[in-house]
Amino acid sequence: MIEAPALEVAQWFNTPTALALSGLRGKVVVLHAFQMLCPGCVQHGIPQAQRIEAQFERDDVEVIGLHTVFEHHDVMGPAALKAFIHENRLTFPIAVDQPDGDGGVPRTMRRYSMRGTPTLVLIDRQGALRFQQTGQVDDLALGALIGQLLAEAPR
Amino acid sequence: MIEAPALEVAQWFNTPTALALSGLRGKVVVLHAFQMLCPGCVQHGIPQAQRIEAQFERDDVEVIGLHTVFEHHDVMGPAALKAFIHENRLTFPIAVDQPDGDGGVPRTMRRYSMRGTPTLVLIDRQGALRFQQTGQVDDLALGALIGQLLAEAPR
Amino acid sequence: MIEAPALEVAQWFNTPTALALSGLRGKVVVLHAFQMLCPGCVQHGIPQAQRIEAQFERDDVEVIGLHTVFEHHDVMGPAALKAFIHENRLTFPIAVDQPDGDGGVPRTMRRYSMRGTPTLVLIDRQGALRFQQTGQVDDLALGALIGQLLAEAPR
Amino acid sequence: MIEAPALEVAQWFNTPTALALSGLRGKVVVLHAFQMLCPGCVQHGIPQAQRIEAQFERDDVEVIGLHTVFEHHDVMGPAALKAFIHENRLTFPIAVDQPDGDGGVPRTMRRYSMRGTPTLVLIDRQGALRFQQTGQVDDLALGALIGQLLAEAPR
Fold first, then answer.
1. Domain at B37-149, CATH from 3.60.20.10, 3.20.20.70, 3.40.30.10, 3.50.50.60
2. A78 touches chain D (CB under 8 A)
3. For the structural domain made of A9-15+29-151, what CATH number should be given?
């Protein structure tokens, strides 16, 4: 089992308290890494994350957005993200990935070795990293993956 | 457990030998009931059945079309269906539901108490009827259902 | 000016009286040639013809379907077409292209030298053939063509 | 004839020199007013503007984007817009609507009495304002409008 790396987060939106993967044991976690100015994220990734949130019970599946800014840092800061979340009416928790302090790839993104955005990550009920893909993921295939993880008994 | 009723079939296409649900134990079976002149079938059901066939290994998931003609019988006979299969390049096995001999609802459709077309049926590895829905089914939800059935151990 | 060839029609649906292109001078005519078992027609051509019918006033634009059966003749006869029209709730006039009597390309299709289905034909207010294309036509481009023909004064 | 109000522009992108409507007489002008964080603009308006640019010759139709920021001013400034243009690979000229200096509706937007974004404006070959609509515009209807304006002779 490869445990999913912990999230390093600078700031949270849409949640009263910070979330930690270690606190979500027992649920399937869908981590959607995006950038607000990435067209593939806006057109495919974000709407898919919203469909997942709508499809499954939150007791079963936790959808988390991760804003992994690795370019255009000056115009994708927290204030811009806040407006983006508001305009797109996003309601799932969204984390700002901790910047590396040097204008490069932020820390959680680096820990997961993500190759770009959007990247979708599935974490099982025991906290293991089970799926990670950069680019567009088909709804049917994604549903099947989530369904298989849901069928696994919590430890 | 509710065992899925056996198929009553007048004729098969796209398979050298007749299939029986009892012979498919160990696989998840997706039964797609349609009529070739039903717009919802042509626009949504058939393409979805093709996506399922493409997505999963045939050792895991068997897609079967069931032509449940309950109206316009004279123009949806086997010759018309054959042309439809050819033009739409369908490659999964397709069964002609056995007519009731009286111009009414055909026999398999009646056994399953289907309320129209398209109707999607999921049968688990042990032959139990696990899901049945008439109308459009969402890819993400359907994927999750199939994924959960795939995760169940064959007996 | 190339005058659009007259239609040779075996039977009409959705109109109390037969139509003739010569009787439609003053209108832009959109002729949509299709076969009921042609997937590109069902998925793209027919819905586009319905959008055109919905978009324009019938005093300006007349949409006519032309069922140009050149294959699978035995299963695309008038009774099958009637069921197809009913199931798809088509309301524009639809003509059955006159068979050649020999199982080949029907007569109107031959007169227009159409290369397959779907084929879209635009005829101007004076009866001239102004556009013909087999395959999928983009809505924006098609709208512009119709708009330009509408802007021409009736003679 | 209602002459289209002149553009008041703070900054241009994708053009070596500033454009003026008065300098575009003879062409049909499609003015697409948007905000980079407006979901309807990103999902519908911007792709439609790109389709228009691709469909018509630039000698006939000039597509101009107008960034009419009336909310979230601090995160939709020129630097953010520049990143947005880059990420979405937009190639048509885009003007930043002149702010009113008071955080309200920018000047060109006010001159046109636009009610929100996206707003599509069509200007004819003589510079007259011929169509304006806020919200989603159908491709077929829009094509017909452009086609009719194209059919009008330049003065």
1. 3.40.30.10
2. no
3. 3.40.30.10
pTM over 0.90: yes
Contact present, B64 and B29 (Cβ < 8 Å): yes
Burial annotation C31-47 (CB, 10 A radius, 16+ → b, else e): bbbbbbbbbbbbebbbe
User: Which has the closest alpha carbon to A96: A87, A88, A84?
Assistant: A84
Inter-chain CB proximity D37 and A84 less than 8 Å:
yes
Pairing of strands B129-134, D9-13: unpaired
Q: C1-15+38-62+72-138: which CATH topology?
A: Glutaredoxin (3.40.30)
Looking at beta carbons, which residues of chain D come within 8 Å of C150? Answer: 144, 147-148
CB-based contact, A50 to chain B, within 8 Å: no
**Which of B37, B83, B88 lies nearest to residue C83, judging by beta carbons?**
B37
Looking at CA atoms only, how far is residue D133 from chain C in angstroms?
A: 16
DSSP state of D98: P
Residue A37: closest C-alpha in chain D? D84
B73–C contact, CB cutoff 8 A: no
Q: Which residues of chain D have pLDDT under 70?
A: 155
* CA separation for the pair D106, B4 (Å, rounded): 65
Q: B29 forms bridges with which residues in the sheet?
A: B62, B123
Dihedral sign for Cα atoms in the order C141, C146, C149, C151: negative
- Contact status of A88 with chain D (Cβ, < 8 Å): yes
Q: Is D2 on the interface with C (CB under 8 A)?
A: no
Residues of chain B with pLDDT under 50: none
User: Helix, strand, or coil here: A43?
Assistant: helix
Q: Do C42 and B38 touch (CB under 8 A)?
A: no
Any idea which fold D1-14+49-60+90-148 has? Glutaredoxin (3.40.30)
Which pLDDT belongs to residue C141? 98
Look at residue A63 in the predicted model and tell me its pLDDT: 98
